[in-house]
């Protein structure tokens, strides 16, 4: 969960509800929806700046190799699915596609099961099979 979007929405919603019920006066009650929109607009970049975007990437970006310093972040890589060139922040290494994949193709891919986010050394988790009780 990203704290910038969720946090700004939660704070703006709470303040807007309090304004709607008259806690901040009659004018704030009348403009509670605009207060919510304005607060969300201001708080989202502030929370992103305060957290330094630590929570924005869902997976590591090892296209150039893990823990490799990148000289030029704006260098482009071609997506293995749509064959479009993207900059490094918009692309990730996909073990299923065997190459770099853009964020759009990654979010639309239903077959991989987030293979890049899972530990490749981990064994599958075996769940017990459901059983049906029989009447004796």
Structure commentary:
The chain crosses the membrane at residues 6-24, 31-50. Keywords: Membrane, Transmembrane, Transmembrane helix. The protein has 136 residues and is of the alpha+beta class. It folds into two domains: 3-51; 58-116, no CATH class. The protein is 36% helix and 10% strand. It has helices at residues 3-20, 26-30, 32-51, 103-108, and strands at residues 76-78, 85-87, 91-94, 99-102. The chain has a two-stranded antiparallel sheet with strand order 1-2. Strands 3-4 form a two-stranded antiparallel ribbon. The longest helix has 20 residues, at 32-51.
Strand order, sheet with most strands: 1-2
The helix content is 25-40%
Return the domain count: 2
Shape: flat
The percent range for strand residues is 5-15%
Query: What's the end-to-end separation, in Å?
Result: 49 Å
Query: What letter string, H or E per element, gives the SSE order?
Result: HHHEEEEH
Structural class: alpha+beta
Radius of gyration: 23 Å
Largest sheet: 2 strands, antiparallel
Number of helices: 4
Keywords: Membrane, Transmembrane, Transmembrane helix
Transmembrane segments: 6-24, 31-50
């Amino acid at each position: 969960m990203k704290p910038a979007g969720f946090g700004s929405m939660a704070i703006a919603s709470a303040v807007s509800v309090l304004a709607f019920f008259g806690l901040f006066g009659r004018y704030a009650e009348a403009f509670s929806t605009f207060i919510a929109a304005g607060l969300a607009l201001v708080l989202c970049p502030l929370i992103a700046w305060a957290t330094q975007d630590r929570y924005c990437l869902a997976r590591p970006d090892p296209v150039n190799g893990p823990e490799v310093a990148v000289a030029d972040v704006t260098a482009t890589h071609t997506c293995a699915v749509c064959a479009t060139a993207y900059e490094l922040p918009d692309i990730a290494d996909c073990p299923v596609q065997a190459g770099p994949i853009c964020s759009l193709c990654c979010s639309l891919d239903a077959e991989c099961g987030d293979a890049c986010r899972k530990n490749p050394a981990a064994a599958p988790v075996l769940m017990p099979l459901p059983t049906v009780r029989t009447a004796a």
